[in-house]
Structure formats: structure tokens, C-alpha cells
Amino acid sequence: MNQWDSDGQRWVGSAPGSGSGQAPPDRGRARVLLVAALVVLLVAVAGAAIWMRAHGNGAGGQGVAISTGPEPAPPPSNTPEPYEDDLNEPDPRESDSPPPEEDEDRSGTEGPTETVQRYYDAINSADFTTAWELGGKNFGASYSDYVSGFAETARDAVSVTDVQDDTVYVDITAYQTDGSRYAYTGTYTVSDGVIVEADIARTR
Q1: Residues 6+ apart with CB under 8 A from 184
Q2: By percentage, how much of the chain surpasses pLDDT 70?
Q3: Sheet containing 167-176: which strands, arranged edge to edge?
């Protein structure tokens, strides 16, 4: 680099690397700016690393739970609390009262007309055991003879014409298996849901 000599009359070239010259002001300013930029970059990188670690995005990939205060209270339930009276009420399914018993024996509640109707319903259904218990056993025949008496009967149609106390007046049409039919009329006497007496006569 050239510079003026002591008498200000001529240029003197300084040897490279002699150290006698000064660095230009622009080069020093650039070096300062570069150092400052590096410092800012390092600070930014360190801050980003700290932020990512705090939010669970570090190398381990594990989230970090950060507590910022007490646990929030759970939202109020919409289900109303039971009243004390409701808690003391007995369960209706655990009632001490037994369920009402069904009346399996209808003979004590039905009238004489219903008994006669049930008797012929049993005959038409070929339920001779029930017909026997409803009165057939009181007609003076054995069970086998009683059942045999209906061997040629297809069905019986009974019509109640009158009822006087325990006596039921009936007209009966007996349809036979061969297509013929017979007519009967008479009475049945009923006691405690059972036919105890029959007075039936054929009319044709």
C-alpha cells in the first residue's frame, strides 16, 4: 500500500505483510456485521431447539406435559341427584306382597250355563277326559263305554233355551259321521261346576 512520506512529497510503498498499514474501515465493519449475524443465528437456532423440545417435537418424539395451573373442575352433570325420599322408597319389584294367584279352578266361579258349554266344547274337541270330569262320570257308564258312545258323532251343537237355578234347559243337534243328524232336548243339573244329573231325550 502507498502512503505519503514524512515530508509529504512522495508515495512510499509498504511491503506486503509488514504490518505497518491499517485495515480499511469498510473491511472491519463487515467483519463486525458477520460476527453479529452469526450470534443472532445461533441464538435463533438455540431458541427453536428449546421450543421444539418443550412442545414434544424433539428427536425422541415424546410429548412433554406442561402444567400451567390446578386441574380444571369437571363439567356439572345433567343427571339430577335423587331425593332422599326416592332413596328410601322400596323397589316395586321387591314388594313383600305375593302376586295374585290365578284361579285355576274355574268351576267355583262359572255359572251352570258355562259348565254345560265347556262340557260340549270338550266333547267336540275329543277331550273326553275333561268331559268325563265335567259330568260324564255321573251318567252311569264306565269311561270306556262313555267314550264309545261318541264313536259315530262328528260334533254336537247345543243351544241353551232356559236356566232355572242350577238347571239348564237345552236343545241338542248331534251330527253323525255318516251325514245324518239327531235332535235331543232336556235338562242338565249343575252343582259346583259339575253336571250331576242329565235328563235328555231324543226327539227325532
Answers
A1: 171, 172, 173, 174, 200, 201, 202, 203
A2: 56
A3: 153-164, 167-176, 181-191, 194-202
